[in-house]
Amino acid sequence: MREHDIEPIRGLPGDLPPGEALLWQGAPDAWVFARSALGARWIGGYFALLVGWALVGGTPLGALITAGFGVLAMCLVYGFAALVARSTVYTITNRRVVLRVGVALSKCINLPLVKLGGADLRTLGAGYGDIALSLDGPSMLGYAILWPHARPFRFAKPQPMLRALPNAAEAAGILAKATAAVVPVQQRSEAAPVANAPRPAMGAREAAA
């Protein structure tokens, strides 16, 4: 029996409570994830330069050895990407976003929609894209806990990221609608004075990571 076979609902640690509905689920595409999250193209280009340098200033044997290391590195990158794609499930409900992540040690990260301050959609071509989530208030999430499902170089305030999604714009639209439906309800229940203007509903927008 595999670890995730005991999940009552794929990608979730337990059954949905009353009133919560599953809206969308997805996972990274392994090939796109390797290129966009792990820098496969940069790694391949680096070893290609080393092989060229070895051919010009070294020996064919040295170039062959370098090429062998390059192939090994690319196999490791794409192999890791395949494991991430297989073990990851992103879930959007009408109350939260759940990231079931982890290759060696699986964990579920729950992000209530009322805590989301925004969502940035970065398109990767051919319908693929990343969605970075910004959180309101303090967070206990560290960059190391989220990686590689974290927005690059946001170390002080890490942002969870749904990476290499097929049909990313569709997922972003579902997330925006779900958040828009939840946030006004939460604000009204907090008995805000009339002078306090309601926070605008979160929407997905184009941004560079």
Description:
With 209 residues, this protein is of the alpha+beta class. Helices cover 38% and strands 23% of the residues. The protein is built from 5 helices and 8 strands, in the order βαααβββββαβαβ. The strands form 2 sheets. The protein has a 4-stranded antiparallel β-sheet. Helix 1 crosses helix 3 (60-87) and helix 2 runs antiparallel to helix 3 (60-87). It starts with 21 loop residues before the first strand and ends with a strand.
How large a portion of the residues is in β-strands, by DSSP E? 15-25%
If helices are DSSP runs of H or I spanning 4 or more residues, what is the number of helices?
Answer: 5
Helix/strand class: alpha+beta
Radius of gyration: 21 Å
Distance from N terminus to C terminus (CA atoms, Å) equals: 38 Å
Oligomer: single chain
The helix/strand series, from N terminus to C terminus, equals: EHHHEEEEEHEHE
Please state how the strands of the largest beta sheet are arranged side by side.
1-2-3-4
Can you tell me the overall shape? elongated
Instruction: Provide the low-confidence segments as ranges.
Output: 186-209
Got a strand count? Answer: 8
Report mean pLDDT, rounded to a whole number. 86
Helical proportion, percent range: 25-40%
Largest sheet: 4 strands, antiparallel
Question: What is the compact description of this entry?
Answer:
By secondary structure, the protein is α+β, with helices and mostly antiparallel strands. Helix content is 38%, strand content 23%. The protein is built from five helices and eight strands.
